[in-house]
Design a protein that fits this description.
0% of the residues lie in helices and 59% in strands. By secondary structure, it is mostly beta strands. It has a six-stranded antiparallel β-sheet, with no helix packed on it. It is globular and about 35 Å long.
Length: 94
């Protein structure tokens, strides 16, 4: 069971994560959306595609662009469609 936590809150928990490049991608339905705020930030990965981001907000503290997902991943990364990963101080334990 993988779990993502930040600032004392459980952001996601699932035994159905997919690991890519050392990151755990949680199924979207396993993520507590009340902690995610839309961000306009995007980055491009040559083999995964364009990533979109969320800010993580817990108890009035914001962690900018700490969650990301690929709305339309390239074919090589199709296993991470409809999944969300975390970084920037979010603790992910598997």
């Amino acid at each position: 069971m993988a779990k993502a936590t930040w600032n004392g809150a459980v952001l996601a928990e699932s035994d159905q994560t997919v690991e890519v490049e050392g990151n755990q991608y949680f199924p979207a339905e396993a993520v507590r959306r009340e902690y995610l705020k839309p961000s306009s930030h995007q980055t491009v990965c040559p083999w995964k595609g364009t990533a979109s981001y969320y800010d993580v907000e817990v108890n009035g503290r914001r962690n900018a662009n700490a969650a990301w997902y690929y709305p339309q991943p390239k074919a090589a990364a199709s296993q991470i469609k409809d999944r969300i990963a975390f970084w920037k101080g979010v603790e992910v334990v598997k």
